[in-house]
Design a protein that fits this description.
Layout (H helix, E strand, L loop, with lengths): L1 H26 L67 E8 L6 E7 L2 E5 L4 E2 L2 E6 L3 E6 L2 E6 L3
Antiparallel strand pairs: 1-2, 2-3, 4-5, 5-6, 6-7
């Protein structure tokens, strides 16, 4: 019985809301606020009054996006520019890998290397004419000169 009363009340509420919507839209339109512009026979011209803007822009502030590159110096102090690092580029010497010699009993390996026309028997970790030998393989060696690494392939 309780559910039946609730259903009847909600039914009247829904009918009332739909009735109000139909009344507002179809039966009693508000003609004062809404004008239809689709009727071309209406000769009334609507002219909206123009209002002038009454503001002005005051731009007397500093530009927030400008970066001051030069620091302001105090009187008597001289600001010297920072010294730039001068990187000396040294040309690589002429390096040729001729082969390797391996001791069968101790597994000790040395490389036969020509550096600027001079022959050396080099072990890994040794340095000749500022060229340090890092690794030895059958077909190539890895060397370092001025902290730059290169792989030198065996000469045929």
């Amino acid at each position: 019985m309780k559910n039946k009363k609730l259903i009847i009340f909600l039914l009247f509420l829904v009918i009332g809301i739909w009735g109000l919507i139909i009344f507002k839209i179809f039966i009693h339109p508000n003609n004062d606020k809404v004008k239809s512009f689709s009727n071309e026979s209406d000769s009334t011209n609507f002219i909206l009054p123009e209002k002038q803007d009454t503001f002005s822009i005051i731009n007397s502030y500093d530009d927030p996006f400008r970066i001051n590159v030069e620091p302001k110096a105090k009187k008597g102090n001289i600001i010297l520019p920072k010294p730039q690092k001068v990187e000396v580029k040294r040309d690589w010497p002429v390096i040729q890998y001729n082969g390797l010699i391996k001791n069968q009993s101790s597994s000790h390996t040395v490389a036969l290397v020509n550096i600027n026309g001079k022959r050396y028997v080099a072990e890994p970790g040794k340095e000749f004419e500022k060229v340090q030998l890092l690794k030895i393989w059958r077909d190539s060696i890895q060397v370092v000169f001025n902290s730059e690494r290169r792989v030198i392939v065996k000469r045929k």
